Please model this.
Amino acid sequence: MGISYAVYKTFDLIFLIIAITIVLTWLPVKWYNEPFKSLKTFSEFFLAPFRKIIPPIGMIDISPIIALFCLGLLRQAIVSLLSAIGL
Model:
């Protein structure tokens, strides 16, 4: 259990926060109240670049799916690299 495991778990936490934010968008949440405001701010850091590139299709926003997929690829690359060098 080294640095690669810690990086892997950090990405798991990011995925969880983004997933919680996505589920909360389906509910009547007041986003200006805490902890919702912090969740939204944190997840928008990762989702905003994808929302700029991929517009919503009708009322469906697929940018979180693409963002999670890209984060998964990034996690795999970083963890593989760290494991290869023994961290």
Remarks:
- DSSP finds three helices and no strands in the chain.
